[in-house]
Amino acid sequence: MQIIKDRQIIENNWSFIEDNQALPMGNVIISLSRWQAEKPQLKQHAAPLGLRLQSSDNVADIAQDLAHFDLIELHFPVFTDGRGFSQAKLLRDRYQYTGEIRASGHFMVDQVFYMTKVGINAFDLNDEKQLPLAISLMDDFSVSYQELLFA
Amino acid sequence: MYQYNDIDQTLVDERVAQYRGQTERYLKGEIGEDEFRALRLMNGLYIQTHAPMLRVAIPYGLLASKQVRKLAEIARKYDKGYCHFSTRQNVQYNWPKLEQVPDILAELASVQMHAIQTSGNCMRNTTTDHLAGVSPDELEDPRPWCEIIRQWTTLHPEFAYLPRKFKIAVSSSATDRAATQFHDVGVHIVKNAAGETGFRILVGGGLGRTPIIGTEIKDFLEPKYLLAYLDAILRIYNLYGRRDNKYKARIKILVREEGINKIREHVEQEWLKNRDKLILKQEKIDHIKSFFQPPAYEADADQDQSFSVHQQQNPAFARWLENNVCAHKQPGYRNVMLSLKAPDSPPGDMTAEQLDVVADLADQYSFGEIRTTHRQNLVLADVKQADLFPLWQRLVDIKLATPNIGTATDMICCPGLDFCGLANAGSIGVAREINEALDDIEYVYDIGELKINMSGCMNGCAHQSVGHIGILGVDKKGSEWYQITLGGSSENEAAIGKRLGPAVAKHEITPAIRKILDVYLKQRQHEEETFLETVNRIGIDPFKEHVYANH
Predict the structure, then answer these.
(1) Chain A residues close to B28, C-beta within 8 Å
(2) Which domains does chain B have, with CATH numbers?
(3) Which of B182, B297, B392, B421 has its CA 20 to 30 A from that of B539?
(4) What share of chain B is helix, strand, coil (3-state, %, to 5)?
(5) Please, how many CA atoms are within 13 Å of residue B94, restricted to the half-sphere of its CB?
């Protein structure tokens, strides 16, 4: 399966593992509840870890643990739920998270422009055929009031 | 007024291109209905009873004459020759074709206009006092701050998918003419004890189904932190506002459920963490302020007193002066209100011909600028007193001189069942009927200041809950009924109207209004006591007894 990362279409090499399944080798994404329940063991995990946040999860709760994750997945339950935009903004600006922030779940290609602006740099679209379109829509606007106002 | 630079122009042009692409993909079936709905709403496009409705932004109600001419051109070319001014100081077209909307947006962009964020669950057009910059009771011109907020809210990437719509209003005068206490955020320009100018911030006000008066969240904010503070409020709202029920999703519900102290604590924490990154530099503020300098007033404009001769000789002109013209801070100048409430036309509507004449009159008499008001009228704000009489004559010709500003027939009215997909009941027809019943102009003057607001459904677009008399259309088993409230106000002494009693049938609404006004005329202590003062003094029971006497 393919995704977008840093404006390139690449093969996805991460998989989400349900809480009740043992972690396989390779890059795995886990839930926040699993992280909180198994933190001591997971900190010893040999392979790269990713963390899936639901839109209702509080980013501040994992602020101290961000160094353990190569990827944060923001899962959009429905495209109208805009909490993920603030979660991404907080991860980048407040907590200086520099790893991959990936959008997944239900979102529109027409949202990727705003998503890139708040720091999301990877996109797992439900419809892979839309990947090239999504990249082209990242250039919808060449100017930003929010950047200019504080320049 | 603010003039676009290359960046502003690029932004609106790119928005047109973006929406054109979205419309094309939708028409090809590549965007689903729900998804396109969100996208078109953020470009002001509703799907209504008969046709789509396009809401065009008029930032803080300020228009240049060339923009008004463009609105007229669009009305002719893409609509049925007219448009409708809304209570958010915006303008609406009721008959555009969905596939032509990108072309309309391109036309608007050619005169520095757009329909960005005029609907949808995002930050909406910022509104202000329609007498901003010209009112004698003002601390400073609020429009530069509105423009700063306009820029910040436009295409804000983090706050485009909020739990619900979000409206900001700014006021800088002793009398609040912008209903700031009924906005998600109200910004008051104030002076602190040390004499410094800053902002008092209110949060959680709103009309609609659950009218709530806003609460103070910050007593004094330094100007450089305005956007940092708004950013903090919006982030708290975006993260914690309810998303499970659209009727409980406005920030007013969050404030009510959590309490203002808890919300303030969250917002302050958020603000303190972020404020140094979001400081407005003085150069930026000064640059924006430079667009709102007073026009070239004539210093001796107050010397020409010829209008007072006409005033003595012409009672119709005198009446218009008394009702539709108000004081200006510059000697020899007046603010002229153009009434969009002529007895025989739907409240807030204007024809293309009227728009063209108004554009010409603005060029000739008011430095080429026109304002819209939240009570759905227009203002020519900088008219020399010597020009009042010729201007009045021209306005009479195009039926924009009905001398009823602030009176019973200056009703706020939504489009109602005739146009709106949400409405439960008609409003335009009822407004006309009330207007006809009150056609005795002497009677209307005798009643004096009165705000009647009428909405066709409980979404409350016409702010019925803050009308001195509020009328709310409701559906009862398929027929149209009307709920009356008394004593609402959106000004300094903000109040939500009290329910008079059970809803009345359509044929009973006009007689009920007559009865309410009869009670007022009988009960008022003297001619100076306004309707609202009488209601506040005697309560609603005397009105109730008279209206429901035969039930």
Answers:
(1) none
(2) 6-109 (3.90.480.20), 134-289 (3.30.413.10), 310-397 (3.90.480.20), 412-547 (3.30.413.10)
(3) B182
(4) 45, 20, 40
(5) 21
Q: Name the residue range of residue A76's domain.
A: 2-148
The one-digit pLDDT tens for each residue of chain B (551 residues) are: 999 999 999 999 999 999 999 999 999 999 999 999 999 999 999 986 667 899 999 999 999 999 999 999 999 999 999 999 998 899 999 889 999 999 999 999 999 999 999 999 999 999 999 999 999 899 999 999 999 999 999 999 999 999 999 999 999 998 999 999 999 999 999 999 999 999 999 999 998 888 999 999 999 999 999 999 999 999 999 999 999 999 999 999 999 999 999 999 999 999 999 999 999 999 999 999 999 999 999 999 999 999 999 999 999 999 999 999 999 999 999 999 999 999 888 889 999 999 999 999 999 999 999 999 989 999 999 999 999 999 999 999 999 999 999 999 999 988 787 777 778 888 888 888 888 888 777 888 889 999 999 999 888 888 999 999 999 999 888 889 999 999 999 988 899 999 999 999 999 999 999 999 999 999 999 999 999 999 999 999 999 999 998 76
Nearest CB to B239: which of A80, A86, A142?
A: A86
Q: Which residue of B has its CA nearest to A137?
A: B18
CA dihedral sign, ordered B143, B180, B173, B372: positive
Amino acid, single-letter form, for residue B300: D
pTM of the model: 0.95
Out of A86, A143, A146, closest to residue B152 by CB: A146
The domain total for chain A is 1
Query: How far apart are alpha carbons B40 and B42 in whole angstroms?
Result: 5
Q: Which of residues 90-119 of A touch B (CB under 8 A)?
A: 93-94, 108, 110-111, 113-115, 117-118
Neighboring chain A residues of B17 at a CB cutoff of 8 Å: 140
Q: CA-CA-CA-CA torsion for A25, A31, A33, A35, nearest 10 degrees?
A: 40
